[in-house]
Amino acid sequence: MLSFISNKRGRNLFYEGFLYKINKTTISKVYFICADKSCWTKLATNCNFTAILSPPHPEHSHEAPSELIEERQFREQVLASIENDPTKRLKDVYDAEIQQTEEETVPNYYNIRTTMSRKRAKTLPPVPKNLHDVSVGGIWANTSSGQPFLLHQDTGFSIFCTHTALRYLVKSPVIICDGTFKCAPTPFTQIYVFFAIIEQHKVPIMWALLGGKTQQHYELLVLILQAKCLERFQTVLFLILKQVSLQQSSYDYRRHSTLAVSFISLNVYIAKCSHWG
Ligand SMILES: [Zn+2]
Questions:
Q1: Ligand 1 mean position, distance from CA 54 (Å)
Q2: According to the model, what pLDDT value does residue 244 have?
Q3: Residue 174 Cα, ligand 1 centroid: separation in angstroms?
Q4: Per-10-residue mean pLDDT, the chain, length 277
Q5: Residue-wise over 138-164: b if at least 16 C-beta within 10 A, else e?
Q6: What is the distance in A from the centroid of ligand 1 to the CA of 230?
Q7: Ligand 1 centroid from CA 21, angstroms
Q8: Has residue 194 been placed in a domain?
Q9: Ligand 1 centre and the CA of 32: distance in Å?
Q10: Among 3, 63, 151, 223, which residue's CB has the most CB atoms within a 10 Å radius?
């Protein structure tokens, strides 16, 4: 396959350091002409662009536009990298390509950021309009290393936790839960996180995207988790309610007391650990 480089007006053929645009297409050949308007060099390829049928002729009337092409090649590499993994931060993608590239002329990050974010928007699945539209599947249900990450999915509930992480949650002497509303992605109301204690560190283990903040939501979340733990490890979670949160703002108080009621009404074990006095 011959190499093509995209620009605002479409894709140009890149051959031996020069760029060509399509001039004419027939049943068996595609004719190209140099992208430089003042130059008359032409060539022809087969219809699936795998071979040059007529080499460039006559000679170019100008030097090969190396800097421009290097910039465009770098741009192509960056965009291909986004297509390959659209979950990475744009700046990280750019920096990784800078490390790898052999090109001397590369575009500034701020000059290609918009193109990069457009590419990412095209590659990512569309943002669901409502909770019924949410459907996590394919690579999006796995971790970047390919482990199953989606633990449960239902309207208003998308719960993420790997099998290994769930085992840590079951074994943890204390489980800490907290929700955040600010950074919940549309159309969810909150991200609820369960933390386990692993070697005296609080480690986020399970992330639940919840479609609401009612008692029913918390009850269902706990029910789902307990069902998963029973099914996989023949045990239930021993949950501790962090009393500290009850002394925080009234907003937190309401939220955590709702959760407290949920746990008690479900007859979940409530253990008190020495970590919290
Ligand atoms: Zn030319």
A1: 15
A2: 39
A3: 70
A4: 70 86 93 93 93 94 81 87 89 90 77 90 88 90 91 95 92 80 91 87 92 86 89 77 40 43 37 33
A5: eeeeeeeeeeebbbbeeebbbbbbbee
A6: 70
A7: 11
A8: yes
A9: 11
A10: 151
pLDDT at 30: 94
CA of 154 to the centre of ligand 1 (A): 59
Q: State the alpha helices, DSSP H only, in the chain.
A: 66-84, 90-100, 109-123, 163-171, 215-233, 250-265
Query: What pLDDT score was predicted for residue 9?
Result: 65
For residues 113 and 144, membership in a common domain is answered with no
Copy the structure tokens of residue 62.
């100008």
**Distance from the CA of 39 to the center of ligand 1, in angstroms?**
4
**Token output for 86:** 């659209």
Number of structural domains the chain divides into:
3
Domain of 79, in residue numbers = 71-123
